[in-house]
Amino acid sequence: MKAILGLSSEKILMKERVAALFAVEKKLHLFVFALITICLEIFLLVKGDSYDLNRGSFVLTFILFFFLYAVLEFILHGIVENKAIPLFSLIPAVLMFFLLKVNEKWSDIAIAVLLAVVVRIIFDYLPFRDKVILFGTFVLDGSALYLRMYWTAFWGDKLLDKLLFVALVVLTLSSIQHIIWGRKEGGFPFNFFLLLGCFLIFIPMNRDPIDWSRLEGVFGNAADATAYYLCSVIGDSEYTVGYGSFNATGSRISNSDKLQLVLESVERPYFVYTDAETGKKMKMRRVLYLAGGKGVDGKALVEWLQFLKDNDIDKEEAEMFSQISKLDVEYVYLDTADEIAPAGALVLTNQDGFIEKGRSDDRHRKGYKIKAKYLDIDYGSPLLVELFQNPKGSLIDREPMTYQEASEYYLSLYNQDLKDVMNASEYEEYLKQTDMYQIYGDTEGVSDRMEKLASDITAKADNDYLRAKLIEIYLRQYTYNTKAVGGHNPDSDMSTSKGMADIADRFLFETESGYCVHYTSSMVMMLRSIGIPARAVIGYRYSFPFEIQENYVVEANCAHVWPEAYIENVGWIPFEPTSAYSTAGMYSWHRNETIDPETENEIQLEVQDLPDIPEGAEQQETYKNEGLQLIKIIGIVILSIVLLILVIWAGAILARRIIYKLASPEKKIRIDVEMTKARLIKESDKEFKDRGLLSDYLKLAPEEEQEEIKQLFDSYYKVVYGND
Predict the structure, then answer these.
(1) At what angle do helices 107-124 and 25-47 cross, to 10 degrees?
(2) Residue 696 CA to chain centroid, in angstroms?
């Protein structure tokens, strides 16, 4: 009879354990996922920018290991029943924590691994766990909504936000059903709500507005608002293109044709020019840059007028590369408080009047409209490029124009009144703004190799415009790739110089491929490193069609980031280093017929001396080594888990043998009977229902064993019911 010790548990018990793991644990895992996501967001809001953390990677690692610890507990409970089993998960967790902590890049993952086991143990020993999950769900609902409405968190621009609200919907519907109907028959199982959640994950944002014209009054407004809100929450995935802010990290993105803006213009969507070689009339379609969060840049206009005045530009010459244009912008599925308007905006108005700031106090709803008057400048005009490089007149110790002089000059050039843009006091304030180098010259995070590269590229240039142009040309050699990576720090973004420098350094010297975020970060930081103020502008780059339309649709695919360089005595000039887009010279209006050959060839001569793109093979090898190191760490942890299971299994067998050996004869008989029953059920292929009678078990035994087992059962009955 001793031989039957150590056999596996009953089939029924095993099935119950599997059901518990994959049924009860589902609700627990969703609750813990929502809990850790919300708590992490609160932690980061409190810490602000002082703590760098990749939210998605942290939460994914946490919930993955939370589940793995549950599997490990399930395996260990199959070997031995003990309330201390959950604590054994600490062994591999602590081991993996220290192995990952050695590498600074994996320190956050290490914390997630350890935190997962701590939370797992807490919920294993938590009394009234079901009630905590039931009522805690509503607490999480309120917390998430509060963070969303008052702290601009969880706005659906990341996949993690979307998964959070899907999890909360599933938990909330299940909890409401439980509170109202309890466990009555006919209620929906939890799997039903999970299926609903899976459906919500894949619902895309509607490309076109929903037509609620059949609903009127309050109901129509409520329905429209609800549709827009749900589209914002469900939205696209974490890395889908579209208008955002400077929290762009440079991670991989996917395309989207989601409708974001509708433009209306009475002007033709193209320019007509005479080709210099053929003499034929040609069309050049307009390219429009829409900047977000800038508003009206009065300082830029003041410097533009002064630049033209210094170079004795008259109305006829100004018309060759600039004009005043008008445009109406309507928001559709765009969730932002930023005012999005054409770059070079002179006057912006909405339904409330003039727009004074680049960002509103509240987020704009679908249907919000902006009327814009802006200065449309052809930065690729050969005449203008010549002025940028070889300005006429003395620019040293010049006397700026007075407000009256500027007003008269502005009127003579564009037949517009300057007072519509600014008054005399505002003009004087703009003249006093001379801190561009302090505001846009921060070089924090710029590496020595990046600074050296910028110096090498611009070594032979004799003016700031040419230096900026050479950097633009150099960067356009890099490969455009939307399946890119960000900086060395996963949370580095474009909101800080340090973040841009990190993204740029990795792009320039290691990955050597990326999209507008990488190109712009690189150009801004390289310009700053050689003493030229630079800034990044986020918005859209839209190419008009050749056909005149009533309105023009701007999709999420048009979202873009580009750099601007501040050239002394000229002002802000935009550049296009992103290789997937045309430069200003490629879509110039071609209105100027007198091109200076020396000016035209100057840049081309400098381009021949540009340095080669750095080799990235060494870093790629580092990636391979880091990957190999991670595989080794995982292997060590898996080996430790296997050894742990073997130790517990061997210990359980040894403990059972010791208990059996030290037990009284009566106790030994009881143990033998229980183990015999388990063995007979396991070895039998018949369906068995336990009625509490040992004679039923005897029928399952092979004929050659029945006599011996009958003697065991008889002895058991004597022990239980007899006095001997």
Answers:
(1) 130
(2) 63
**Residue spans of beta strands (DSSP E) within 498-653:** 513-514, 534-543, 552-555, 559-567, 571-574
Distance CA 291, CA 300 (A): 14
510-543: per-residue pLDDT in tens?
999 999 999 999 999 999 999 999 999 999 999 9
Q: Write the CB contacts of 643 (distance below 8 Å, at least 6 apart in sequence).
A: none
Query: Which pairing describes strands 479-480 and 513-514: parallel, antiparallel, or unpaired?
Result: parallel
Give the containing element (helix H, strand E) for 624. helix 617-662
In the predicted structure, residue 330 carries a pLDDT above the cut 80: yes
The residue with tokens 């399930």 is 74
Strands ordered across the beta sheet of 571-574: 340-342, 287-292, 534-543, 559-567, 571-574
Q: What's the rounded Cα separation, in Å, for the pair 485 and 487?
A: 7
User: Nearest-CA neighbor of 38 among 137, 182, 170, 107?
Assistant: 137
pLDDT of 666 higher than 90: no
DSSP H stretches of helix in 561-616? 597-607
Identify whether the C-beta of residue 436 lies closer than 8 Å to the C-beta of residue 533.
yes
Strand order in the sheet with 353-354: 353-354, 345-350, 369-377, 322-331, 259-264, 552-555
Bridge partners, residue 287, by sequence: 543
Lowest mean pLDDT among 229-233, 318-322, 566-570: 229-233
Classify 231 as helix, strand or coil. helix
List the structure tokens of 421: 């843009």
Domain boundaries, the chain: 2-234, 259-614, 622-721
Identify the helix (H) or strand (E) that includes residue 185.
Answer: none
Task: Find the DSSP H helices in 433-541.
Answer: 436-439, 448-457, 464-475, 497-506, 516-529
Residues 212, 229 contacting (CB under 8 angstroms)? no
User: What is the greatest pairwise CA distance in the chain?
Assistant: 124
Q: Tell me the two tokens of residue 627.
A: 């990957």
Specify which residues 347 forms β-bridges with.
373
User: Strand pairing partners for 208?
Assistant: none
Predicted confidence (pLDDT) per residue in 198-220, tens digit: 877 776 533 333 333 333 343 44
Whose structure tokens read 């659906």?
156
Give, in degrees to the nearest 5, the angle at Cα 256 between 52 and 212: 110
Burial letters for 275-304: b for 16+ Cβ neighbours within 10 Å, e otherwise?
eeeeeeeeebebbbbbbbbbbbbbbbbbbb
User: Residue 483 half-sphere exposure, CB side, CA atoms within 13 Å?
Assistant: 0
pLDDT digits (tens, 9 = 90+) for 158-172: 778 888 888 998 999
Which residues, 6 or more positions from 554, have their beta carbon under 8 angstroms from its beta carbon? Answer: 259, 260, 261, 262, 263, 290, 540, 542
The C-alpha atoms of residue 192 and residue 199 are separated, in whole angstroms, by 11
Q: Nearest CA to 242 among 276, 207, 274?
A: 207
Give the burial class of 673: count Cβ atoms within 10 A of its Cβ; 0-12 exposed, 13-18 middle, 19 or more buried.
buried
Q: Which of 650, 656, 647 is nearest to 678 (CA)?
A: 656
Please, what's the b/e burial string for 566-598 (b: 16 or more CB within 10 A of its CB; e: otherwise)? bbeebbbbbbbbbbebebbeebbbbbbeeeeee
Q: Of residues 601 and 264, which shows the higher confidence score?
A: 264
Q: What is the pTM of this model?
A: 0.58
- Distance in angstroms (rounded) separating the CA atoms of residues 98 and 330: 54
Instruction: Express each pLDDT in 565-609 by its tens digit.
Output: 999 888 899 999 999 998 988 888 765 544 455 555 555 555 666
